[in-house]
Structure to design on (172 residues):
């Protein structure tokens, strides 16, 4: 799980420093607020584990701890200092390991672009082939195991904020 750091030259660096599980339940992904004491405990734990070597003139300080961030795949810093990040929900039901479908391996090598991949999945996972694709969970509840089940899961967008102005994000 990533920790977020802020360089004094206003450069944000995303570094993977933690080996904690990235699996979170949907209940854990709502508004989260950390107390100053919780933040300080986590900051101290990170600082004793990490000893970065920085170029002259750069200073590294923690801005947000990893318990506020869930599986970030992209980030953007807003003009007001808030950080926006997106999180992916993709699991085995929306994108799967082709190695589990050996009959697809050779044909999938020929796929050149997203349109080819879309056509491939729509053919292999067509509604008419539902009985052959029962390994695919019926996520949309229509009684079929088809390509439409791969469209149910959505990405999520979060905002990290320093609500009390102490230099540490305390809300996600």
């Amino acid at each position: 799980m990533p920790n977020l750091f802020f360089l004094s030259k206003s450069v944000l660096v995303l570094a993977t420093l933690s080996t904690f599980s990235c699996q979170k339940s949907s209940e854990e992904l709502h508004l989260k607020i950390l107390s100053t004491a919780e933040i300080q405990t986590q900051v101290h734990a990170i600082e004793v584990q990490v000893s970065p070597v920085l170029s002259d003139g750069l200073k590294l300080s923690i801005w947000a701890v990893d318990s506020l961030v869930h599986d970030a795949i992209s980030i953007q810093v807003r003009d007001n200092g808030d950080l926006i990040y997106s999180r992916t929900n993709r699991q085995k039901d929306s994108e799967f390991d082709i190695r589990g479908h050996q009959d697809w391996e050779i044909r999938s090598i020929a796929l050149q672009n997203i349109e080819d991949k879309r056509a491939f999945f729509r053919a292999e996972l067509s509604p008419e082939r539902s009985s052959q694709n029962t390994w695919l969970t019926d996520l949309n509840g229509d009684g079929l195991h088809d390509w439409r089940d791969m469209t149910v899961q959505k990405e999520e967008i979060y905002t990290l904020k320093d609500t009390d102005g102490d230099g540490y994000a305390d809300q996600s």
Remarks:
- Residues 2-89+154-160 form one domain.
- The radius of gyration is 21 Å.
- Confidence is low (pLDDT under 50) at residues 1-26.
- The first helix runs from residue 36 to 49.
